Amino acid sequence: MGLFKFAQSRSLWMMHFCTGCGAVEMPPTMTSRFDMERFGIAPMATPRQADILLITGYLTVKTLKRVIRSYEQMPDPKYVIGFGSCTLNGGMYWDSYNTIKRLDLYLPVDIYINGCMPRPEAIIEAFVKLREIIAKGEANGWKKYKENIKWYKENQAKVFDVKKWSVIKWE
Amino acid sequence: MTLFYILLILFVGGILTYLGAKISKHLGHAIAFTSSALSLYFHSILYGKLYGFTIDIGLFKLHAVAFSPLSWLIGEIVVVIGFLSILASFKEKHSDFYYLSVQFLLAGMLLFVNAYDSITLFLSFELVTLFSFFGIWDGRKESAVKYLIWNLLGAYFIVAAIAILYRFTGSYFMNEVHYLSEAQKLVLFLLLFAGFAVKSALMPFHVWVKDAYRDSPHSFTALLSGAVSKIGIFGYFLIMFYTFAKFFIGAKYLQLTLAWLGGITALFAGIYATTKDDSKELLAYSSISQLGYVVAGIALATPLSISAGAFQFVGHAIFETLLFFTIASVAYRTGTTRMTELGGLIKKMPVSFIGLLFGIIALSGIPPTVGFPGKWMLYESFIIEGRILLAAVIFTASITAFLYSFRLVYSIFLGPLPSKYEDVKEAPFNFIFPIIVLLIPLLLFGVQPGIVLYYIDRFLSIFGIGKIEHSYSYIVTSLGKFNALYVGIVFAAAFVFAFIVYLLGGRTRKVHQFDNFTAGEVVDETYKLHYVDDFYLFLERELKGFLKLRIESLYDWLSKFVDGLGDAARRVYSGSHGDYIAYLGFTLLLLILIYGGKLWF
Amino acid sequence: MVLKIIEYLGIVFGVIILGLLYGGIARKVIARIHRRYGPPFYQNILDVLKLFAKSNEASHGVMFNLGPVIAFTGVLVSLFFIPLGSFRPLFSFEGDIFVVFYLLVVAPLGMALGAGEGANPNATIGIARGLTLMLGYELVFFLSVLAPMIHYRTASIATLVTVQSAFPHWNVFPFFISAFAGLIALHGMMGEKPFDQVIAPHEIASGPMVEYSGKFLGLLQLYHAVGIIVETGLVVDIFFGGGNWLTFILKTFFLFIALVIINAVMPRFRIGQAVKFYWKYPLVISLIGLLIVTIWR
Predict the structure, then answer these.
(1) How far is CA B169 from CA A70, B90, B430, B479, in A?
(2) Is the pLDDT of residue A74 over 60?
(3) Contact (CB, 8 A) for B400 and C135
(4) Count of domains in chain B?
(5) Do B414 and B551 belong to one domain?
(6) DSSP labels for A26-75?
(7) How confident is the model at residue B67 (pLDDT cuts 50, 70, 90)?
(8) Per-residue pLDDT tens for B210-228?
(9) Where do the H-state alpha helices sit in B251-302?
(10) Is the same domain home to B139 and B12?
(11) Chains contacting C with at least 3 CB pairs below 8 Å?
(12) Do residue B560 and residue B577 come from a single domain?
């Protein structure tokens, strides 16, 4: 089983879903200068094939619906990384009527990266940290989501129509 | 005399069905079922026996003798598919006359493959044409008329050849014609070949197939494709290896031309099939294509290639019929055969799906099904003979088979299920039984091709053609070896291994068809998720010029030309008196000029 | 008998590991061409292990589940009928090139059926493209492989390997025209750029793999890995002389890396362009190769 844990930490596939402006830092991280593929991380086209969901920046309600749907379509185990300060406390859009201020209420986040936007070096540091906690077996955001599904759904219901946009059944 | 009794059962059964159906539909069905079941039973026990009869009809005698095991083979195909087709047709709506036509059709086909003299041959050919016409008539009248006209053309070719033959040899028997010149033999051969080519849908005589197959009742199309086309194939065997045997074996250029005709048919029909939207049209072109393989094999006249052609037509009888029965079952439940309207039926009709799946696996010629050994022998024989381009053409035709067969299975059974088919159930027993029955030889003959090959050996030896080296499981040629049983065993073992690897994975959850990767959007039926229109549009775009040239346009041009001629001729009758007087005057002048000299001198 | 089964299983595992290693090294080669470091060479093995450790995958039905299983089966069956160089413990004498040609179709067909039940139009578009592409490269491959077959009057791959026993006797030298066409066809068969229309992650969201996750994707990776060995192995056997197990591995490796290098620097054809391309130059080249062989005899 140790081998599987090792493999899970060394082979992380991220979903190529650019949710916000922080995603502009992803191409430099993927390409030759900072090369995240050497950590075993590769971008994948669909949520079915991905392990990591990157919330790269602010989330509007419109994007949140699709992010929740894609998150629920991913197989287990799955990890969420929150990029930038917008996911922590609303960041630069802290007083906007249209953005989500605390990502934590809607999705379980495993790692936050602060910054606006975080540079590729910070992103790679976060990936290395994610590796470590996966290898230790501490990255359990997906389990938290399953166990506290009702609470998450209540929060989500306050901003959009959960019945229409959800993929899993929770009651 | 047992063949006579079988024919009697079918003829009497047909009439009784018609009369019985007037009393009650179920009585008619029962009689049809009994008569076809009895004919199947009696014909099957004739295996390996010589049989025949002679009837004196005053003016001439009808001779029917099973002069080769090929007669029994095709006869068995006819009665089996006839029985299954009648069973399936009970659920469909038919006129009372339909069952009579089908039984008379079966009798006609049995008589044809056992005909010993040319009159019986021609009589049974006409019987087959007439009663299959009535069968298609139950579907759509225009297609039936088109079928009839083309097959009458074929019949006229045959009767012309028979008449010429009688004039030169003084007899109606179909044995070896010795005292004719090479040119006369060639003309007769080509006339008879053309007549049989219409029945077996060889290009350029294939234009009736698309409409007839599409519009005939679905269970009848299975009979048309599986049994009636074999009549033409039997005719080929007759003229190539019996009546004109010495002539044909020596005529290398003729063999090559006919083999190329078969190859071109296979390729072109395969390409047309990829562009069709209606499943029965697609299968019609697929049938034409597969029969092209048979002709290419038989025409090359080496033991290996003839065995290949023979094996291929046995396989074709099995899988093409299976495919048509599957379409019949789908059409029965959903009411349509257009692929653009169907989709996702695998969840509702799993047995039909299995039938179609194995049908197309056999059609594509994938081992270990019955479609592969024939193709394998075909390639080997072409390469041994040095016909490489022909092998390449047949290979390309075989790849087009992958294309259109995938389109067929995807459009009907895979993809999203439209909500109007939510309540569709599996097809009734009448359709499932033929599907399951046909699956058995499909797999059995695929892993043990020797079963069929030993039988083919027997009629090849009667025709004086050599044998090929094989056993129940393997076939050996000078190029290589194919062991069907090993392929089957390895396949099963590999599947077990792959399945064990699969079981090592985690638990899955069943998801609804709309829980799909749609870039995060919520989709429902208003979104077009079924990629089923213009499936191979990128291919059609590249082949646009090629697809424009079609033999139908030639025939259209011909008919317009004749029409134009007739139109011009009509204008002779202008209705004005001056014109008629002028005609009279000109004729008189002409007569004077020609005979004037004779009159005065 | 039991020993034979253990031997076969050993070969299957060996081929799987080898295929995964090839894939990983290929990623490293592509990375070096991009002037970066790339993942460790054993990365593909880790990927497969991770995929099998996933749970809660989405399944659209029985055929969907069986699709990758059939794909893997198909490529394993083809493996058994190809001589791996001179090391022929499997059934290579019981089936010749035509059997292998048709067995190689089982795998894409299985994957196509499974992806079809996924009810995603991206998947079907990918498969339609794949089949259309097959119309292009299969014929070219058939004709190019036919040249040595006709010359040596055999369709058995095992016999062809025996005939090319030492270095100067490799088929690629006398039949270099056919071999050239065959290599172009191999490039399409392997789905390397410019012929990777089937997967095309940026256009059709990875085509048939779009709905597959977890263990299904793992099976497809294994299928791809064994497929590399099978397809390059076929070409090595016919044109590059087979050899003992070590030279066979080296030859398939270098052939594969050559294809990967071309893959790393090329964009992708449109599917219509790809088929048209195949029917232009490679077809003519392979026909010329065949012509030479038939005239020579």
Answers:
(1) 82, 48, 50, 44
(2) yes
(3) yes
(4) 4
(5) no
(6) HHHHHSTTT-GGGGTEEEESSGGG-SEEEEES--BHHHHHHHHHHHHHSP
(7) low
(8) 889 999 889 899 999 988 9
(9) 252-273, 279-299
(10) yes
(11) A, B
(12) no
pLDDT at position B50, please? 67
Identify the closest residue of chain B to C140 by CA–CA distance: B392
Tens of pLDDT, residue by residue over A85-112, are 888 888 888 898 888 888 889 999 999 9
Contact C46 A40 (CB under 8 A): yes
User: Which tokens in the block code for residue A26?
Assistant: 């992803």
Q: Which domains does chain A have, with CATH numbers?
A: 2-165 (3.40.50.12280)
Asked if the ipTM is above 0.95, the reply is no
Chains that touch B (3 or more CB pairs under 8 A): A, C
Instruction: For residue B63, give the nearest of B120, B101, B102, B19 by alpha carbon.
Output: B120
**Which among C72, C121, C138 is the nearest to B531, CB-wise?**
C121
> B346: which 2 tokens?
């695998």
Residues B38 and B127 in one domain: yes
**Dihedral of the alpha carbons of B139, B145, B147, B152, in degrees to the nearest 10:** 150
Amino acid identity at B65: V
Query: A159 pairs with which residues across the strands?
Result: none
**Phi-psi region for residue B62, left (φ > 0), alpha (ψ -120 to 50) or beta?**
beta
In the predicted structure, residue B412 carries a pLDDT above the cut 60: yes
Instruction: Point out the residue among C61, C96, C119 whose CB comes nearest to the CB of B482.
Output: C96
User: Which residues, numbered 326 to 365 in chain B, qualify as contacts with chain C under a Cβ-Cβ cut-off of 8 Å?
Assistant: 344, 346-347, 353, 357, 361, 364-365
Is residue B499 over pLDDT 80?
A: yes
- Of A67-76, B53-62, B514-523, C277-286, give the lowest mean pLDDT range: B53-62
Question: Which segments of chain C have a pLDDT < 70?
Answer: 85-94, 165-168, 297
Tokens found for residue B338: 């257009």
- Tell me the HSE value of B321 on the side-chain side, using a 13 A CA sphere: 35
Distances (CA, A) of B332 to A63, B361, B411, B419: 46, 23, 17, 17
Enter the tokens of residue C121: 């139009």
Higher pLDDT, B174 or B484: B484
